[in-house]
Amino acid sequence: MSLTGNKPSDGVENRSNGLSYYAIITENVSGMFYVDIRCIGCSVCAEIAPSHFATNHDEGYEYVYSQPVSESEINLCKEAMEICPVNAIGIR
Ligand code: SF4
C-alpha cells in the first residue's frame, strides 16, 4: 500500500489494521527509499547522505532526490533511516 500527499500537511494516517501508513512526500523519486510526512526537516539525513536526500526549503522537509545504487550508498541511506528521529524514512 502506498499513499501520497503533496506536502506533510496533506498527509493521511491509517491505523485501521494496527499498522501505521503515512503519506509519502511526492518529491521522492521512485525506488527503494522514501521520506514520509512525519519528516520534521531536521536535515540529519541530508548530512549523512547528501547525494540522496534534498531539502524543500519552502515546506521544510527532506525527500529522496536520487536513489542509492551501490552497496555503500544503500548503507548510507540505511544509516540515515536508522538515525531519523521520527522514523520518516522508509524502505520498500
Ligand atoms: S532525518 Fe528524518 S526528520 Fe530529519 S530531515 Fe531526514 S527524514 Fe526528515
Write a short abstract of this structure.
Helix content is 20%, strand content 24%. It has two helices and eight strands; from the N terminus they run βββββαββαβ.
Structure description:
The protein has 92 residues and is an alpha+beta fold. The chain has a single domain (27-91), classed as 2-Layer Sandwich (Alpha-Beta Plaits), CATH 3.30.70.20. It is built from two helices and eight strands. It has helices at 44-48, 71-83; strands spanning 4-5, 13-14, 21-22, 24-25, 33-35, 53-56, 61-64, 89-91. The strands form four sheets. A two-stranded parallel ribbon has the order 1-4. The protein has a two-stranded antiparallel ribbon with strand order 2-3. The protein has a two-stranded antiparallel sheet with strand order 5-8. A hairpin with a 6-residue loop joins strand 2 and strand 3. The longest helix has 13 residues, at 71-83. The chain starts with a strand and ends with a strand. Mean pLDDT is 85; it is low at 1-18. The structure holds iron/sulfur cluster. The site of iron/sulfur cluster has 15 residues, from helix 1 and strand 7. Iron/sulfur cluster is lined by residues 35, 39-45, 61-62, 84-86, 88-89.
